[in-house]
Automatic annotation (TrEMBL):
Record field: catalytic activity: 3-methyl-2-oxobutanoate + acetyl-CoA + H2O = (2S)-2-isopropylmalate + CoA + H(+)
Keyword set, alphabetical order: Amino-acid biosynthesis, Branched-chain amino acid biosynthesis, Cytoplasm, Leucine biosynthesis, Manganese, Metal-binding, Transferase
Protein name as annotated: 2-isopropylmalate synthase
PROSITE patterns referenced in this protein's UniProt entry, alphabetically: AIPM_HOMOCIT_SYNTH_1, AIPM_HOMOCIT_SYNTH_2, PYR_CT
Start and end residues of each stretch annotated as Regulatory domain: 408-552
Pathway, per record: Amino-acid biosynthesis; L-leucine biosynthesis; L-leucine from 3-methyl-2-oxobutanoate: step 1/4
Organism: Dyella acidisoli
């Protein structure tokens, strides 16, 4: 890597070093990837790095090149690929690490070498076996060495929050004098509190020599669940770089979550008076991309990007939301890249939300009718975790949305051969105590399963429509099977969801059988008029009332 002539802290586009801007240093691909369960291959890292650049992070820590040849290659590829974001590589205070980091960054448009060395008494004594003076000398020599390669050098005092503050002043003063352009104050073990870290940043900025020549940075871990609060307190104390990760992934309990810090600064802008370069509308897509690449789901109740972040189930909140969205939401879903707020109908919902959803589905009910539907809706919600639109339609039409039983599948096996027929065996149990097993062959596994179910239950059905679609992404995507079968001159619907599409199909077929049997029309009762919610196809007419399609 050739020495760079750029001035320290010129990472801002257009020389924007304004005091009101917080630089976002993303370490998803380094500290985040260090956590068990989150490792990514090179292709995944590059994909994530490109998304992070689009998101607008200022500095992206791409890895620790000395760690492995693959980490080296990943940093090198990312460095070559990114145009605007500063690509950073981590190195211990060792010449070999620094040389390797510099080589990995050789092709970067903007680069930073990030050095770290423990400063706390605990780490000095038990981990490094170094005196204070040795720590100081090692840090200074390493920074000077890194500066030969790169104008942008960050120095981190590992375990800073458990370090004597006066020693931190000495270390950071020496680091800045040796050419460090960012000094980072990590809470390596997630030990600090907001008041404490605020105090430390204030103190350091007052006492470190030439403090104005470097950007002060925070790097908080979440062991006590305070990483984001501590990062914000550090910012209030003068930090102008925050190190964080998407979804808060990272060592042990994780790092401070990028999306939470950014949205806190944005939503509470009048309080903080600070801005970032992040395009917040990309937060949710970036979070989902990371989930896909690592196979780790985001918890539903995760702030900003979780599935429940803009979902409301309880009636009192839904009523408030329908009147004015600010009653229960402090930010707009579209501002973080989520399409819209959802009012989920469940056991805690009330009439206002029920009416609104039914109207959206084309059912305008009088108050008295609504009361009846509401009562049955609550009874259903007590039994079912999720009430779907189909359930609501059935309720509005006075039908039974509960298609479970009397038949249940207890066993299902299928086998198929390329170019040959398929076979299926099913075992079913009936609520009246019967246990039935049947086998059948068919053109494919779906056909074989349907035939076996028909035989076992004695229900004649002609499959007229069959659709399977993925309702999530990735190798473990859920398949939603939707079937329409002809029986007794009517079309009957059944649907089910499973990660196994044959299983989803079998359950959907059995839902049809159950509906037929619950309506007492099994074995070709041609006089049927009514059916369950999977019954005749519905055509929503202009008056909003559903009519049965004349398919017979
Ligand atoms: C707080 C953090 O997140 S720090 C970053 C943590 N991340 C990682 O450790 C992931 C990548 N790490 C690795 O792949 C390996 O640890 C390697 C390749 C870097 C080093 O492997 P090894 O040489 O086998 O050493 P090992 O990891 O067992 O021990 C760490 C060594 O680094 C030394 N060390 C630790 N931190 C530093 C530092 N900041 N500066 C200089 N030396 C350090 C330790 O004293 C120890 O030295 P020793 O081998 O002379 O006793
Ligand atoms: C390498 C440093 C910054 C680190 O990750 C920590 O101290 O937590
Ligand atoms: Mg860390």
């Amino acid at each position: 890597m050739t020495p760079q002539t750029a001035q320290p802290n010129d990472t801002d586009e257009g020389g924007d070093n304004a005091e009101d801007r917080v630089r976002i240093f993303d370490t998803t691909l380094r500290d985040g990837e260090q956590a068990p369960g989150f490792s990514m291959d090179r292709r995944a890292k590059l994909c994530m790095a490109q998304a992070l650049e689009t998101l607008g992070v200022d500095i992206l820590e791409a890895g620790f090149p000395q760690a492995s040849p693959d980490d080296f290659a990943a940093v090198e590829e990312i460095a070559r690929s990114l145009r605007h974001t500063t690509v950073c590589a981590l190195a211990r205070c060792q010449t070999g690490d620094i040389d390797t980091a510099a080589r990995a960054l050789e092709r970067a448009h903007r680069s930073r070498i990030h050095l770290f060395l423990s400063t706390s008494p605990l780490h000095r004594e038990h981990k490094l076996g170094m005196s204070k003076q040795q720590v100081l000398d090692t840090a200074v020599a390493s920074i000077q060495h890194a500066r030969k390669y790169c104008a942008d050098v960050e120095f981190s005092a590992e375990d800073a929050m458990r370090t004597e503050p006066e020693f931190l002043v000495e270390v950071f003063s020496a680091a800045i004098a040796s050419g460090a352009t960012t000094v980072n104050v990590p809470d390596t073990v997630g030990y600090t509190t907001p008041a404490e870290i605020h105090e430390l940043f204030t103190y350091l900025r007052q006492h470190v020599r030439d403090a104005h020549k470097a950007v002060f940075s925070s790097h908080c871990h979440d062991d006590l669940g305070m990483a984001v609060a501590n990062s914000l307190a550090a910012v209030s104390g003068g930090a102008r770089q925050v190190e964080c990760t998407i979804n808060g992934i990272g060592e042990r309990a994780g790092n401070a979550a990028l999306e939470e810090i950014v949205m806190a600064l944005k939503v509470r802008a009048p309080r903080f008076g600070l801005r970032t370069n992040i395009d917040t509308r990309k937060l949710h897509p970036t979070s989902r991309l990371l989930s896909q690449l690592t196979g780790q789901a985001v918890q539903r109740n995760k702030a900003v990007v979780g599935d429940n972040a803009f979902a409301h189930e309880s009636g009192i909140h839904q009523h408030g939301m329908l009147k004015h969205r600010s009653t229960y939401e402090i930010m707009r879903p579209e501002d973080v890249g989520i399409a819209e707020t959802t009012l989920v109908l469940g056991k805690h919902s009330g009439r206002h939300a029920l009416r609104q959803r039914l109207e959206a589905l084309g059912h305008k009910l009088e108050d008295a009718d609504l009361d009846g539907v509401f009562k049955r809706f609550k009874a259903l919600a007590d039994r079912k975790r999720e009430i779907r639109d189909e359930d609501l339609e059935a309720l509005a039409l006075g039908q039974d949305p509960d298609a479970t039983g009397p038949w249940h599948i207890t066993q299902l096996n299928t086998s198929s051969h390329l170019g040959g027929s398929a076979s299926a065996t099913v075992k079913l149990s009936h609520e009246d105590g019967r246990e039935v097993g049947e086998a059948a062959i068919g053109d494919g596994p779906v056909d074989a399963v349907l035939r076996a179910i028909e035989r076992a239950t004695g229900t004649d059905m002609v499959l007229t429509r069959f659709q399977v679609r993925a309702i999530s992404e990735g190798g473990d995507a859920q398949g939603h099977a939707q079937l329409v079968a002809r029986h007794a001159k009517r079309d009957w619907h059944g649907s089910s969801v499973s990660t196994d599409i044959i299983e989803a199909t079998a359950h959907a077929a059995l839902a049809i059988v159950n509906r037929i049997e619950r309506q007492g029309t099994s074995r070709s009762d041609a006089s049927i008029e009514e059916c369950g919610h999977g019954g005749p196809l519905f055509d929503l007419r202009a008056n909003g009332r559903a009519q049965k399609e004349t398919t017979a």
